[in-house]
UniProtKB/TrEMBL annotation:
The keyword Signal applies. This is SPOR domain-containing protein. It comes from the Bacteria. Residues 1-28 form the signal peptide. It comes from Limnoglobus roseus. Keywords: Signal.
């Protein structure tokens, strides 16, 4: 009987600790998801001695593809990450 009482207490403690850890993990996942949607990739071209933003993309691959197009035309190009401006 004493063994069952201790076993029940251990299981209850483990369950409560697991629920607390799950809530913290879920909150962190929501913040990560939100942050991912606020990231934009700007394609900038060097014109007249300063960098001018010519396009903005949500996906890094699309931004790099556009940058390669400008490079083929002979422009100096860079891709910058902008976070949380929207």
């Amino acid at each position: 009987m004493f063994r069952k009482l201790i076993l029940t207490a251990v299981i209850a403690t483990g369950t409560l600790a697991g629920l607390n850890a799950t809530a913290t993990t879920a909150d962190a996942g929501v913040l990560g998801l939100f942050d991912r949607h606020t990231v934009r990739f700007e394609v900038k071209v060097l014109r007249h001695g300063h960098w001018e933003c010519v396009a903005t993309y949500r996906d890094r691959e699309e931004a790099q593809c556009a940058a390669r197009g400008f490079e083929r035309q002979g422009h100096a190009v860079r891709v910058e990450v902008q976070r949380g401006h929207w």
